[in-house]
Amino acid sequence: MTLPRNQTQVPRWIIAAIILVNLFLLIPPVIVARARYSVSREPRIHVFPDMDSQKKFKAQSANPLFADGRGMRLPVPGTVARGELRADEHYYWGTVEGKWAVSFPAQVTVNNELLDRGRDRFAIYCTPCHGLSGHGDGMVQRRTEFADYGAWAIGDLTAEKALAYPIGQVFNIISYGINTMPPYGSQVPVEDRWALVSWVKTLQASQSVNITSLPAEVQQRLEASRPQEVEEPKGTGDGEKGGSAGPEEGK
Ligand code: HEC
Question: What is the CA(181)–ligand 1 centre distance, in A?
């Protein structure tokens, strides 16, 4: 078939080129589609890295620059972080010239507000072990009585041994722990720890108060709440089985 003279045919090479270009255009979408479903350990292609990845020593890594080879450095001895100076030994350690303080530090005013705060903190941090009255009969203690590993000797805060601790030592025990008691310094701020000391001393004092030393109004209230003398209920029948089953029941 012959074409009319004024009509020209598109040269074959142009058609071939168009087909070829179209085929090449298919390559990027194929790569993208593949990347979406394949797994790679290599980081993504990062055209503008900004400051996303930097050369640095990560925690616990080695650093040959230092003699001990450690990447993590300790603060220079004597370094004090802002607001972390603990120079006031009375306030922060409970000692005065290396001996247990026997009074509250100047920063602490002992008033009802402090006692209320102390009672509040005591209920949160200490009652699980020491109990509300400080007798060492908190839930933790009661639970260990039923455990296989035996009871845990939790100090009675109102016993003679604890009474003998000076104020500063009680503060120190709360802050840094004692024997099997964990420290609470990292959880309870220092002013609250002094409030706790005031409450521990209050609990201790509460165990041996002469009623006549109290205000008349309080005396009356206490007298009114004094339980009436009641006769021991007589056992029913054989007597041996009287009374409650006690803690044995919980076993
Ligand atoms: C996880 C349980 C636990 C908690 C919570 C706890 N303690 Fe103790 N505490 C103990 C044990 C156990 C001892 C006895 C340590 C020993 O063997 O000397 C003790 C002893 C003490 C003593 C010394 C008494 C003595 O007889 O030697 C004081 C004071 C004291 N605790 C105050 C506190 C205060 C205040 C809190 C609350 C901030 C507190 N504890 C919270 C377990 C606890």
Answer: 5
Task: Enumerate residues lining ligand 1, CB below 6 A.
Answer: 125-126, 128-130, 140, 152-155, 157, 161-162, 165, 170, 173-174, 178-182, 184, 196, 200
Inside any domain, residue 152: yes
The pLDDT assigned to 234 comes to 64
Residue nearest to atom 29 of ligand 1 (CA): 170
**Res 128: pLDDT:** 94
Nearest ligand 1 atom to alpha carbon 161: 26
CB 214, CB 191: distance < 8 Å: no
**Token pair listed for 83:** 């607001």
Residue at 250 is within a domain = no
Q: Which stretches of the chain score pLDDT less than 70?
A: 1-7, 151, 230-251
Domain containing residue 193: 108-209
The count of structural domains within the chain is 1
Residue 73 covered by a domain: no
* Coil, helix or strand at residue 62: strand
Residue pLDDT, tens place only, 31-43: 999 988 988 888 7
> Closest residue (by CA) to atom 42 of ligand 1?
181
Distance 174 CA to ligand 1 centre (A): 7
pTM: 0.67
Residue 196 has what pLDDT?
A: 97
Q: Token pair for residue 98?
A: 């290396």
Smallest CA separation from ligand 1 atom 39, residue: 126
Nearest to 199 by CA among 251, 94, 126, 102: 126
* Residue 100 to residues 27, 46, 120, 152, 238, Cα–Cα distance (Å): 81, 62, 25, 27, 58
